[in-house]
Amino acid sequence: MLRWIEDWYADRSVSEPEKVKQEMDEEKPRRGLFLITSSRCPDNMMEIVSARVLIAQEKHSPGAPLVYGAALGKDNAVRLVLKIIGEMWEASGAFALEEFLLKRNEKSETCSSEDTVRCGG
Question: How many domains are there within the chain?
Fold first, then answer.
């Protein structure tokens, strides 16, 4: 089963974000769904992975990455990564993803912007 940050990002292309999470837990992802995850490579902050590929990988090598967000289509996933990086830089002036996400969760209120929805729990 995948691990999700408490206040994960959902691109506006994702309707019913909590249903997406449920579908992933049931290993029945929507076609074209990409997840923004922690990186398995220490030189990278995040990875964009097809939901179907991630499910297949997890069956063969346990140790699920942490999911930061979801988007339909790779272009939307890239924009979501850019948004996360932009928010992180604006908030801290540094590229410290884990610290940024912890502080973000502490301040979190379920809210939305024109581009993303923040999904609690």
Answer: 1
